Amino acid sequence: MNQTYGIAGVTAVVLATVLVGALGLRISRTTSDFYVASRSVPPRLNAFAVSGEYLSAASFLGVAGLVLAQGVDMLWFPIGYTAGFLVLLAFVAAPLRRSGAYTLPDFAEARLESRAVRRIASVLVVGVGWLYLLPQLRGAGLTLRLLTGAPSWFGGLVVAAVVTVAVASGGMRSITFVQAFQYWLKLTALLVPAVFLLLAWRADHTPAPSWDERPVFQRSTPVRFDSPLTLTVHEPVRITATGTVDGEALDGGPLTLEAGTHRIGADTTLRFPPGARVPLPDEGGGHAAPSSWANPLSAGREDHGLYATYGLILATFLGTMGLPHVVVRFYTNPDGRAARRTTVVVLGLLGAFYLLIPLYGVLGRLYAPDLLLTGDTDAAVLVLPQRLIGGVGGDLLGALVAGGACAAFLSTVSGLTMSVAGVLAQDVLPTLGIRHLRLATLPAIAVPTAANTVVSDLPVADAVGLAFAVSASSFCPLLLLGIWWRGLTAPGAVAGLLLGGGSALTAVTVTIAGGARSGRLHTLLAWPAVWSVPVGFAAMVLISLATRDRVPASAAATMARLHLPEALAGGALVRDTHPDRAV
Hints:
Strand content: 5-15%
Distance between the termini: 44 Å
Helix content: 55-70%
Number of strands: 6
Radius of gyration: 24 Å
Largest sheet: 4 strands, antiparallel
Oligomer: single chain
Shape: globular
C-alpha cells in the first residue's frame, strides 16, 4: 500500500472526526444533550449512527481475515452480529427506551430498586466496554503500522487521543452525526473497491480458491518474516531467500525447502513461485487444514467445531442487546416506536454491509495467502487493492479502504468511550458532578489503551466475540427477565450477574491472557456462552423464586410503563434529572 495515499485518507477521516466533535461543543449544553442527545434523534439518523458505531474493526477488518484463514464457518460472525438486532427488536428496543434510562445501570436500579444491582451492572458495563475496546485499538495499530511502519501501540494511542477530544467536546449529540457519516464512509470504502476487485479478478480468468486444500500462491510472492518462525512444508518447493533459513545465512539465492519443518530467522524474506502451496506455521496449521475451509462447522477448532459454533451463535445472537455502546443509542430516540423503527432500518443497513465481507475473505485467500504466514490476516481488506489492481488506481482505492478502516475503529471507540465514561461518571466518580463528566473519558479510554500494549495478538473478530459472550451471559438475562418477568428480584439479578457475567468475564480474561491454549479447557474458556448464558438465566430465575418476598412493590407499575405506549404509561420509569443543567 502506498503510504502517502494511505496516510492522506486516514488523515482526512481523523480531521473530519475532530472537526465535528469540536462543533458539537456548540450544541451540547445540557446533561441530556451530552448523555442522550436530548432524546430527539429521529429513527433514520439514529439507525445510521447505530450502524456506524456497531460496524467496528471486527466487522471491517476482522471477519474477512477470519474467512481467509479459517473458512466459511467464520460467516457465523456477521450472521450473529445482524441477527442480534432481531432479538433486540422483538424483546428489548421499545421497553428499554420507555424506561427513560441514561445507562444500563440506571435501568437495573430503577427496575429492581437496588443499589447493589446497579453497582454490579456498572462493573460489567465497564468490563465489556474495555474488552470491546481492545480489538478496536489493535485494528487501529494494524492499519497505521501498514501505512507508516510505526509500532502497533502507536495507532491505538492516536485513536485514543482523537476520540478523547471528540467525546469530551460534544458528547452524544456530536458523535451521532460523526457515526452516521462514518457508516456511509465505511460502506463506500468497501463497495467501490469491491467493484474494481471483481473486475480485476475477472480479467485474471476468475481463478477459484482451493476449497478443500491449503491455499496456493497465484503469483510470485515475497513474504517477509519480522520474527523467527517454524514452517511445515508438505511438499518440496523452490524459492529464493534473503536472511536465515535453518541456521544458514542466504543472500537472495535459490533454495529448495524439502518436506518437513524449517526454522525461518527474523528479518528474512522468502519469495514463493506461482502455484506453490502455502506452508503454514505449526501453531496455525489447524486453521487451514485440508477439507476444513469450506466446512461451515469446521473441525479445525480443537476438534470441537460444533460446540464452538454454538458458542459463537449464542454469544452474538444474545450479546448485542447488552453491548453498552449499542444500548445507549436507543435512549436517544424520542419514544419506543421510534426505537423499533430504528432497529428495523439497522437490520437493512447491516445486511447491505455484510454482503461485501465474504468477497474480501475469498479474494484474500486467492491473492494474499502470505498473510497466513505473517499472522496479519486482519490486513486482507487493506492490501487487496494493491495486490489485484496496483498502480495509482490501487493506491487510491487503498487510501479509500484505509479511510474506511479508520472510520470503523473511530466510530466504535467513540461510542464505547461515551458509554463507559457515562457509567464511570455516575457510579465511580460521583463527587465530581455532571459538569466534570468529560474527565471520565480519560480513564474510559486510557485503561484499554494501556492494556493494548501488552495483550496477546488475538484476532480482532475473535476478541470481539469474547465481549459478546460476557454481554450475553450478564445483560441478556437481566434485560429479558427485567422487561418481561415481574417476578425478578434484586437477589436474583445479583446472583445471575455474578455467576453468569462473572464466570464469562473470567473465562475470556484467561483466554486473552493465554492461560489455556489447547484442549477441552481452552474450548470451554474461549467460547463460554454455551454454559455461561444458561448459568446466568438459571441463577436469576431460581434465586428470584426463592426470594419472592423481595419483588419490588412498584413492579406492576414499572412493567406497565415499560410495555404501554408513552401516552398511556404516564411517563418514563427513569426521569431526566435536571435536564437543563449545563455540562
